[in-house]
């Protein structure tokens, strides 16, 4: 059963949405940064082996 929020419903649902979107966004950001770091590390290791 959903709680009754009355006149503050828009604000409360917005906070719920922010609470769901922010952690997901941070997770995606961390994944992208980790992949970029992995690619850079692989590239640097390949250069080191060649040189």
From TrEMBL:
Per the record, its GO cellular-component terms are:
plasma membrane
Q: Where in the cell is it found?
A: Cell inner membrane
Report TM segments.
Answer: 12-32
Q: How does it sit in the membrane?
A: Single-pass membrane protein
Annotated GO biological processes are:
cytochrome complex assembly; heme transport
Could you tell me which InterPro entries the record lists for this protein?
Haem_export_protD_CcmD (IPR007078)
Which UniProt keywords are given for this protein, alphabetically ordered?
A: Cell inner membrane, Cell membrane, Cytochrome c-type biogenesis, Membrane, Transmembrane, Transmembrane helix, Transport
Signal peptide (residue range)? none
A Pfam family of the record is CcmD
Family the UniProt entry places it in: Belongs to the CcmD/CycX/HelD family.
- Quote the function comment for this protein: Required for the export of heme to the periplasm for the biogenesis of c-type cytochromes.
Q: What is this protein called?
A: Heme exporter protein D
Organism, by scientific name, is Henriciella algicola
- Record lineage: Bacteria, Pseudomonadati, Pseudomonadota, Alphaproteobacteria, Hyphomonadales
| The gene coding this protein | ccmD
